[in-house]
Amino acid sequence: MDERCRQRNAALASALQPLPGSTPYENRRRLNVGGAFEGMTLAEFLAAKHPHIDGCVWQRSAQAGRLEVDGRRVPELGRVVRAGNQIVHVIPGEVEPDVATSLRFVHEDDQLVVLDKPAPLPVHPSGRFNKNTVVGLLAHAFDGWRVHPVHRLDADTTGVLVLAKDRVAARHLGVQFEARTVVKRYLAKVHGATSGRFRCTAPVGRRPNALGKRSAGAGAPALTHFFTLRADATTSVVAAWPRSGRTNQIRVHLAALGHPIVGDRAYGPDAQGEFQSGGALCLHADALRLRHPADDRWVRFSASRPAWARRSAATPQGGGSELLG
Q1: Residue range 1-18+97-179 in CATH 3.20.20.140
Q2: What is the C-alpha separation between 45 and 261, in angstroms, rounded?
Q3: Active site includes 296?
Q4: Class of domain 25-94
Q5: Catalytic: which of 54, 109, 110, 154?
Q6: pLDDT in tens, 98-116
Q7: Is 196 left (phi over 0), alpha (psi -120 to 50) or beta?
């Protein structure tokens, strides 16, 4: 680790006590009205965007003056919205849930930032999380610093995360992720004994169901290669190389194969099932390889492994296993 990363990590540790979202603040959540919602009432628009929120919540917010359309308070929900309107839901005294604070820099240059992300920690603002996110924590610690995440990691997934420092670098990296030329290696601890190489080709649902989950067997084509690193009678540690970039792909594929990830409360059996552990999700973004936006050379980045992933046997060569260190 170079001196710049050491200084960044020291500044982060100092700035995140307390977490920025743990102090009550006025949260102004913004929603933009797209063309598909032209002519809807405000009530219909909000119901379409947030079907899980009861309409009474929006009615109370409007009556309390906490709904705005293009900067003006709207006291009732019958107003017709137009494409381009910006809706703001003002939430006073917001306190966000706690998140892991052991976020660490592993690399920084003029174009890239590479982080070792802990869990739980969302990357982008969403739902109950605004300031307590990777983007929010960096902005808080470094005077509004804005970076551009170029790929996704779930809040409960640990490991290597790449961010661009400007839009040019973000476009360069985005093309690579879109074209699937970035080689990504994950580690997962799963239920059941696996052996050798195996793969899953089940399509993954393009949209989440009512419970927010993706299904296997219908949707977008998907392929994940796996290799067993360590196995005993009840659990295994596997390496995974996703060849497509579907949301929750590794979790969906392992569950479809009968080996749900330990701690996966979305894709494992329910709380009464024999596999329900209630612990942390054992899924880790171990390493990736991509072309640097400055000069197009291949570079490799990795993150420190969690305790459950250490002391694993080596994987065979090929298929992305060159990322192992």
Answers
A1: no
A2: 37
A3: no
A4: alpha beta
A5: 154
A6: 999 999 999 999 999 999 9
A7: left
